Structure formats: C-alpha cells, structure tokens
Amino acid sequence: MKLVSLIAATVVLAAGPTAQDSGHPKWRGTSSEIHGKVKDKIVGSSWREGCPVGLNKLRLLRLRHWGFDGDVHKGRLVVHRGHDREVLHVFRRLFRKRFPIRRMKLIDAYGADDHRSMNAHNTSGFNCRFVAGTNRWSMHAYGIAIDINPIENPYVTSSGHVSPPAGEPYKDRSRNAKGMIHRGDLVVRAFRRIGWKWGGNWDWPRDYQHFSANGQ
Questions:
Q1: Which element (helix H / strand E) includes 77?
Q2: Contact 39, 28 (CB under 8 A)
Q3: Which of 82, 128, 159, 206 is 20 to 30 Å from 8 by CA-CA measure?
C-alpha cells in the first residue's frame, strides 16, 4: 500500500503492484470531506442537526469491491474522519482476497432507513439513528460502525428472530455461503487489525453484519 496523494483533504490510497495483483483489477480507495452533491444528499437524511458528530468529522469513502457477480464495482461509505484510512486498509485487504460485497451505497439511497437498506442487501456505514427500540445513539451515528452483507450476516436474537427477514437461512452459521462472515475469518481478522470488533462475537443478540470501533 502506498500513499498516492493528499490534496484538499482528499486521501487517495491504491494497491501498489505485486506478483499477486499482476494481470488483475487493482483496488483503489479515496477519502474526502463531505461537500457538494453528497452533502446535499445526506443533510436532512442520514445527518441532521443534533447528531452526535458534525459533518466536518465525517468522511466519504469511495472504493472498489468485488461483487457477487464476480465483477469489480464502485462503492461508497461514510465513516468518522478518525477512522477513514484504517477502514480503507480493511477494504483493500478484502479486495485482495476477493471477498464479495453485494452492494455498497450510501444509506440515503434508502431514505436513511436501516431496514430498507438491509432488505436491499446493502453494506453501510454512518447513519444518525438510535439503537432499535431505544433512545441511545447507535455507533453508526458516530461513524464508527459498518454493516456488511446484512442478508448473509443477519441480526439474530436468542429467541430466533432474524433481521432482515431474508437472512433467515443464514442464522445457521455452519453454512459457508458466499459473503458470509465467520469467527476468525479474513473479514474478522482485517477489522481486528485496526482494533474493531465483530457483533458476531456478542453473547446475544448476535449481529453478524456489524463491526464497530468500540465493540458496541
């Protein structure tokens, strides 16, 4: 990995050439301040006055990822500015290993509705919302949490409730389907390297899609 440029608060990271990458698509990721059309899109949607972090503390990540169709796609995430580079490093590692991600759009494409985003099989980051059923801010509201492939990695309670509903077949974690995350696998290890923790290790409920900087 090498730093290509740092201009106007935009960080560009790219995978340097290696024998492993020779002849294959190269990964690329950038981090930039929230402005322009993206700012217009998220203000009043995933961000609003009263959120626990200001827009100046958030960064837009644009990055390449492998899809379930075997092709390379462009994705976008919003995360806290204090974690942007390390999150880019995680997704670079996942790209190198061809870990598939179905979809990676800003949650504003789904009206900042977590359930709509999960049902659409969308990988997402920042969203100024409470933990479901509480008035406590979610770690997503701080930009320090990311949900990956929510259908293959659903939220599961001890009573067997599954969210999103399409994730029902995947509450059986003995499965080894495309896009699933398992204890100790490359996704968990990649996040662990930057100090983030996995919701699949919680006692109950277990949130197999969820990674956060503080483990909550």
A1: strand 72-80
A2: no
A3: 128
